[in-house]
Design a protein that fits this description.
With 331 residues, the protein is an alpha/beta fold. 40% of the residues lie in helices and 15% in strands. Strands 1-2-4-3-5-6-7-8 form an 8-stranded mixed sheet, sandwiched between helices. The longest helix has 22 residues, at 2-23.
Length: 331
């Protein structure tokens, strides 16, 4: 009976993955045929000797409270996954700015670009300058937490409050994992499929429990793998993986001076390069139930809210808990 149950479970997982593949539609490098939840605008940047388009959404409240919040996406995502957060923030009177970083979402995918968190922060500031926004609350998730940290360190006068939601970069991945060249990272990215993306998300994000509300965010990145543009996307993904590995922010948390909130799903085990670390070190990586506390101690006056039994995406997995935590901090 136990053997039969194992076979049935495996069959159900296989069927789920097959269904996921069936739902995925090819998407070009700039998601031309994918409609975001709010109007998308583009800022033209002249950066590193090339013209680039940086996509962003500017969600205006019906009754403004005079405050702005900027939402920064993670590496495997884009601004669209902030939809519910943006609607609720707008409903409370906040103006909500949601950029797609260069190399992500609907923004340009340059093939010759020196990616750095400082450059991404500078690009992000250009949007605020274009919109004449002097001060903002900044919320960053995953890789967006590293961008938000660098932005806050570079432009503290512009940041009213900082919120980091399960940010990566709470540890220095170079101290655990061996280096991989960008060419090696590119070859690895080229192997991605809807199935491999879903397996990764199930393992690291959702504790092997899949819900229908997770599917749109899988479809977006999986759709790229089915389009002839995918090598362009994969190359930028390799470049930004190298950026994350080589440009830690964890040594500078002590320099943050703005009011800061850490929202940490303690089940998260996300860690860059874990597969390249010695087996004895792998279990020590991505221990968010420890990393959250360590980071909170480094950022003077910061607040830590741990969400038990939640993974890498609290604002997707347990939205109401995430929303209450966020709003209690910024209201």
């Amino acid at each position: 009976m136990k053997y039969i149950n194992i076979l049935l479970t495996a069959a159900m997982i296989s069927l789920g993955l097959a269904t996921a593949d069936a739902q995925v539609k090819p998407l070009d490098a700039e998601l031309t045929d994918y409609r975001y939840p709010f109007e998308v605008r583009f800022l033209t940047l002249s950066s590193q000797k090339q013209p680039l388009k940086m996509a962003y959404m500017d969600v205006q409240p019906k009754v403004a409270n005079g405050r702005t919040i900027m939402l920064l996406h993670g590496k495997n995502f884009n601004g669209a996954y902030w939809e519910q957060t943006a609607r609720d923030l707008s409903g409370k009177g906040f103006r909500v700015i949601i950029p797609d970083q260069i190399g992500f979402g609907k923004s340009s995918k340059p093939q010759t670009y020196q990616f750095s968190f400082s450059q991404l922060a500078e690009n992000t500031k250009a949007i605020l300058d274009e919109l004449h926004i002097d001060k903002t609350i900044v919320l960053g998730h995953s890789m967006g937490g590293m961008v938000a940290t660098r932005f806050t360190l570079m432009y503290p006068e512009k940041v009213q409050q900082l919120i980091l939601e399960n940010p990566i970069g709470l540890e220095d991945y170079k101290t655990f994992a061996s280096y991989q060249t960008i060419d090696q990272a590119y070859q690895s990215e080229l192997k991605n499929t809807a199935e491999s993306y879903k397996n990764y998300q199930l393992k690291f994000y959702y504790d092997n429990q899949w819900k229908s509300e997770y599917q749109p965010w899988l479809d977006l990145i999986a759709g790229w793998t089915l389009h002839p543009d995918y090598p362009k996307v994969a190359w930028d993904a390799a470049l930004t993986s190298d950026m994350i590995y080589n440009q830690p922010v964890c040594y500078e948390f002590k320099n943050i001076t703005v009011p800061t909130l850490l929202i940490i799903g303690t089940r998260d085990r996300t860690a860059i390069g874990k597969d390249r670390a010695p087996k004895e070190l792998q279990p020590k990586m991505g221990q968010y139930q420890e990393l959250g506390k360590k980071t909170q101690q480094q950022i003077q006056g910061s607040k830590l809210v741990e969400i038990e039994n939640v993974g890498h995406l609290p604002h997707i997995e347990v939205y109401q808990t995430f929303w209450k935590t966020l709003y209690d901090f910024i209201k």
